[in-house]
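User: Teach me something about this protein's shape.
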Amino acid sequence: MIGQAAADSCCGALASAPLDDERAAELAKVFKALGDPVRLRLLSMIASREGGEVCVCEMTPAFDLSQPTISHHLKLLRQAGLIDCERRGTWVYYWVLPGVLDRLAEFLTTPQSARVSG
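Assistant: First, the predicted structure itself:
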């Protein structure tokens, strides 16, 4: 998971130091979750939503998939530490965990000095 504990143990960007086994396994789970087009679209829908959260009932119609399949994809995003949710009556509302996307962006960013000029 890329939660606060992972952020605290993070040693910086990909180009700053080689990953240890534990950190590589954590990040692999995140990137595996993001490696599916449906999950990537779901995360984008949640992250781009004004107000920061979205009901599953609003996401399901955007896909030609059953509601249980959408719920399964959302569960995998939750297990990867990217989103969280709360049940309110019949519906479940989802939001991106604070700082998660920023930490992923920082990890993927290479320092200016590491870039090769072309």
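Now, about its shape. DSSP finds six helices and three strands in the chain. The longest strand covers residues 83-88. If you'd like, I can walk through any region in more detail.
User: That's plenty for now, thanks!
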